[in-house]
Amino acid sequence: MGNSVVGGKSFDFAVRVVNLYRYLCDEKREFILSKQLIRSGTSIGANIEEALQGQSKRDYLSKMNIALKEANETLYWIRLLHTTGYIDDKQNESIYADCNEIVSLLVSIVKTTKKNLEAAK
Questions:
Q1: What is the chain's Cα-based Rg?
Q2: Which end of the chain is more exposed for a tag (fewer CB within 10 A), N or C?
Q3: On the CB side of 104, how many CA atoms lie within 13 Å of its CA?
């Protein structure tokens, strides 16, 4: 992912999501919510990777918007897993904070890219 801060953070986050998925399946015997979490949580980085190789600024923006949507969905699944007792307070605080940081970065990227595209018109 080169020098992309959000790209690196999203990859590290995806690794955490995969490990949490394994824990939820192996230890908690939870298969439905965890599958939703792994889909959205790993999709963030995949979309960022695609954005970084985008064909245009608009393509870049589109992929970053998709990554942002996936990150927000992931926050939902983390909250649900915590509220239903599948992950404890410590697990929740850590992974939620990491995902929320990615959301903040993506919001900034999307806003800046939109502003730059508008200015270029």
A1: 15
A2: C
A3: 7
